[in-house]
Amino acid sequence: MQGTFDEITPDILLRAYGMGIFPMSDGREDGEIHWIDPRRRGVLPLEGFHISRSLARRIRSGQFRVTCDTAFEAVVEACAAREDTWISHRIQRLYVLLHGLGFAHSIEVWEGDALVGGVYGVTLAAAFFGESMFSRRTDASKVALAYAVHRLRAGGFRLFDTQFLTPHLASLGGIEIPRAEYHRRLAAALEQIGTFAPEGYCPSPSEVASGVASGSGSTQLSTQTS
Fold first, then answer.
1. 34-36 and 65-68 as β-strands: parallel, antiparallel, unpaired?
2. Bridge partners of residue 127, in order along the sequence
3. Which domains does the chain carry?
4. Scanning 71, 195, 222, 223, which has the fewest C-beta atoms within 10 Å of its C-beta?
5. How far apart are CA 145 and CA 168, in angstroms?
6. How far apart are the first and last CA of the chain?
7. Are the C-beta atoms of 150 and 207 separated by less than 8 Å?
8. Which residues of the chain have pLDDT under 70?
9. What is the distance between the alpha carbons of residues 224 and 50, in angstroms, rounded to a whole number?
10. What is the pTM of this model?
């Protein structure tokens, strides 16, 4: 489904996510927003996230420092800095507004003082809508996703929507499901409560690499190695 609206507020954007549709534009300078509801939807099962041995070593190595919600605008900007992007300036401004309201979050990956990777998305109830990610170092986006999945599991989330399935996401355990199944999973997640900042949550790299969550009410992740 596609369509455009002249005035889009954060509330309208959240209602769209709750209906199972998400925004895209045709380029950085595109002033229109198109609403997408694909026939097949990409999701990243939170209990099936694949951490390979090499990724686990990278997480434990100490090469990267990982933070949450410390550089949201910079992460969105980096995700949009591509020749072919769906993140228009208008969409970016809407995400910044959602972040200010507590509905959009980012995971940042640093090497020293340089931002080298990250992922951002929108939260609604126990659903996380992953929007985009970027990487300027080997495995930086994978590290960001590993930390995001760990945090979502600890916070009680039930759905990680990736919109579309790419080979990169498939290698990490991502799958594709029919639209009707996605809407069923979304409805179930919207009836639950998730928090992106669970009380007492402070995982070590080893915990993230092994899939062991820390913090009150957290559970153990199911991970695979290869």
1. unpaired
2. 124, 159
3. 38-88+103-210 (3.40.630.70)
4. 222
5. 11
6. 39
7. yes
8. 1-6, 212-226
9. 5
10. 0.88
**Per-residue confidence (pLDDT) for residue 31, from 0 to 100:** 80
- 127-135 and 114-124 as β-strands: parallel, antiparallel, unpaired? antiparallel
Task: Please say whether the beta carbons of 196 and 123 come within 8 A.
Answer: yes
- pLDDT at position 32 is 86
SS (H, E, C) the chain: CCCCCCCCCHHHHHHHHHHCCEEECCCCCCCCCEEECCCEEEECCCCCCECCHHHHHHHHCCCCEEEECCCHHHHHHHHHCCCCCCCCHHHHHHHHHHHHCCCEEEEEEEECCEEEEEEEEEEECCEEEEEEEEECCCCHHHHHHHHHHHHHHHCCCCEEEEECCCHHHHHCCCEEEEHHHHHHHHHHHHCCCCCCCCCCCCCCHHHHHHCECCCCCCCECCCECC
Residue 69 vs residues 32, 33, 54, 86, 193: alpha-carbon distances, Å: 28, 25, 26, 22, 20
Residue 31, number of CB atoms within 10 A of its CB = 11
How far apart CA 35 and CA 16 sit, in angstroms, is 8
Rounded Cα distance, 176 and 44, in Å? 9
- In tens, the pLDDT along 64-73 reads 999 999 999 9
